């Protein structure tokens, strides 16, 4: 296999840096391990951001997400780790990451974090833009 998971996030220049526009991505194949039991956790990541000078490259993002597959993480920790890494890579004007995890022990977990660049005064996208694909109900804020 020539493609391997990596924590390296590649970027490319924003094609319209003079304009605020929102990039939204649904990443339905996130997996990591439960740090307590070692059993797999499955989730969908919803990423939305308003780029400044850089955008995240999609193949690199896919390989980055894949890199968590065999690691144990609490939902809250891994969501914030991914948000921090993405913010460090692209320095967006605004970024929101929502992780919707499948049921574990009868509990569905949604974790959402945001970053807003200092001094940026643009309009924020709506706080939730997706329906929970697990069928457990609407995402909070909808």
Structure description:
This protein is of the alpha+beta class and 142 residues long. The chain has two helices and six strands, in the order E-E-E-E-H-H-E-E. It has helices spanning 58-66, 75-90, and strands at 11-13, 23-33, 40-50, 54-56, 94-104, 107-116. The strands form two sheets. The protein has a four-stranded antiparallel β-sheet with strand order 2-3-5-6, with helices on one face. Strands 1-4 form a two-stranded antiparallel ribbon. The longest helix is centred in the middle third of the chain and has 16 residues, at 75-90. The protein is globular and about 45 Å long. 20% of the residues are buried.
What descriptive keywords fit this protein?
2 helices, 18% helix, 142 residues, disordered C terminus
Largest sheet: 4 strands, antiparallel
Q: How much strand?
A: 25-35%
Count of DSSP helices?
2
Element string (H = helix, E = strand): EEEEHHEE
What characteristic shape results from the CA principal axes? globular
- Unreliable residue stretches: 137-142
- First-residue to last-residue Cα separation: 42 Å
Q: Which strands sit side by side, in order, in the main sheet?
A: 2-3-5-6
- What is the arithmetic mean of pLDDT? 90
What is the element layout, followed by pairings?
Blueprint lengths: L10 E3 L9 E11 L6 E11 L3 E3 L1 H9 L8 H16 L3 E11 L2 E10 L26
Antiparallel strand pairs: 1-4, 2-3, 3-5, 5-6
């Amino acid at each position: 296999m020539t493609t391997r998971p990596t924590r390296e996030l590649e970027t490319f220049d924003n094609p319209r840096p003079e304009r605020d526009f929102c990039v939204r991505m649904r990443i339905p194949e996130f997996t990591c391990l439960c740090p307590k039991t070692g059993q797999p956790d499955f989730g969908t990541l919803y990423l939305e951001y308003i780029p400044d000078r850089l955008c995240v490259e999609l193949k690199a993002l896919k390989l980055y997400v894949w890199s968590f597959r065999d690691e144990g993480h609490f939902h809250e920790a891994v969501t914030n780790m991914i948000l921090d890494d993405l913010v460090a890579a692209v320095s967006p004007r605004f970024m929101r990451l929502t992780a919707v995890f499948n049921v574990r022990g009868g509990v569905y977990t949604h974790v959402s974090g945001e970053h807003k660049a200092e001094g940026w005064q643009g309009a924020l996208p709506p706080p939730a833009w997706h329906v929970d694909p697990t069928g457990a109900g609407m995402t909070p804020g909808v």
